Protein: Golgin subfamily A conserved domain-containing protein
Amino acid sequence: MAEETQHNKLAAAKKKSATGFHREGPTSSATLKDLESPCQELAAVLDSRSAEITQLKNTIKSLKQQKKQVEHQLEEEKKANNDRQQAERELQGQIQTSIIQKEELNTDLYHMERSLRYFEEESKDLAVRLRHSMQCEGELERILSAVIATEKKAANQLSSRSKARTEWWLEQSVREQALLKVQLTQKIHHLLSEPGGRAKDAALGGGHHQAGAQGGDEGEAAGDAADGIAASSNYNNGHRKFLAAAQNPADEPGPGAPAPQELGAADKHGDLCEVSLTSSAQGEAREDPLLDKPTAQPIVQDHQEHPGLGSNCCVPFFC
Structure:
């Protein structure tokens, strides 16, 4: 604004000087000199002003260039601002997504914590149950061990009782066989000591042989003695079978011997009876017709005179 005012003043001074020079005409030298000094000043002012104008034009050009640069920078900044705003919007979207994910993660974390507490309680409960089960298992093992020990003890006791019973029965059988042998020996000795040789021949030849007219009674007695020997042999065979059954294992019974189950059942129900050999001998004496004869009476008498030969010997049998 100040430059325009000075430019206007300079133009007005030039115009005034030109109009005054043409209007007055020729003047004196003093007047010309007076007029030249302002003109020189004006020329100097004009030169300075033109220099200032040139400088101002250059300044304007530089300012225009600066303006263009500033505008370019503004455009770049505007573009950068737009990019920044776009990035901010994207960041806002990511932030919102992150917030939503955070909420979901918090929800999942809450459920996981609840599940963890539930599993911890379940694990504690299972641990208690496991300890209880282990205690029960230990108790059951102790009970089972006690039961097995009791069963073994009972089996040992049963086997010992069975062994003792078998030994006792074997001993009684041996005694009975010895007694029978003594009785048979005495009977044969008695028959052979009688007068006449037909009794010996009848005893060696078998029972139920009829003697001649001379030795009828002796032959009949010899035949009865032979029948008694055969009966005693059968009785000994029965005792041998029973002895074999007693000596065999429980799972392999001998032929003709009672099964171990029958022996156990008989022992369990009290069917194992004990009878006196004396009463058995007396019963046989009542039933056997051979003992009613005069030749067999000394055998019974000898058995009564020697009670040490198993007179009261007990023999087991099954009712």
Remarks:
- Residues 29-192 form the longest helix (164 residues).
- Residues 21-27, 197-218, 249-319 have pLDDT under 50 and may be disordered.
- DSSP finds seven helices and two strands in the chain.
